[in-house]
Amino acid sequence: MGFIKALIERFLLHEGPAKSAELAYFFLLSLFPFLIFVLTLVGYLPLTSKDVLSVISGYAPEGALSMIESIAEQTLNNRNGGLLSFGIIAALWSASNGINAVVRAFNHAYEVEENRSFILVRLTSIILTIAMVLTIIFALMLPVFGKELGLFVAKLVGQSDAFLTIWTAMRWIISPLILLIVFTSLYYFAPNMRLKLKFVLPGAIFASIGWILVSMLFSFYVGEFANYSAMYGSIGGIIILMIWFYLTGIMIILGGELNALLHKRKIAPGKL
């Protein structure tokens, strides 16, 4: 209980709720160009919009998912090279702004000043953004090609039915694992500190599990109890998105604060 109390106190002391709102704002700004880029790129790969939406639908609330589906349809119906070029530039710049907000939040959590140059911070943000895009593309490609490759091998050894059972179970593991890799990369590279992997894994695991649970609970709440469309009208979907992103920001910052707290207790146990 003492550790949980210390974690909550640090979250409030470092203006966690306000920083979560800031992250939600940048996430919303980066969502649409990011989707334009990813979905336009997906159009040149052996994937469909259903493959993309099947990943998102597992976590996104109902109102937010309908907006994302609308953007996906418009993007794939109006795909062209110029759109892809615009998507790359806009997505990298906008999403890197979101990563910059994460960098500031993590530096605050570790109570360190940002002494890296603007170019280095922006370059780090862009590289992390590209890594996230590649991870997402890999996550989308793996179920398609992994299943086909696995079925081919399974048929050779005569165990196709057994493989399908194992693959169905593995699909529940792949998505959280990809999410864990993304969070681990953020917690390792974003702060202005040299950290060991053992000091970032606890926060990454916490944020991954916490985000999945919070997303599912919020999705259930929106679907069963809340009626944002009746309250806010046509902007109900945007409100749902903002709340979802705000909850996402809370999980990300809490994971960073958890890592910082464990790190400080390890290097200076008597001070905390």
From TrEMBL:
This is Ribonuclease. It is found in: Cell membrane. Keywords: Cell membrane, Membrane, Transmembrane, Transmembrane helix. Pfam families: Virul_fac_BrkB (PF03631). One of its GO terms (cellular component) is plasma membrane. InterPro entries: Virul_fac_BrkB. The chain crosses the membrane at residues 23-45, 83-107, 119-142, 162-187, 199-222, 234-256. It is a multi-pass membrane protein.
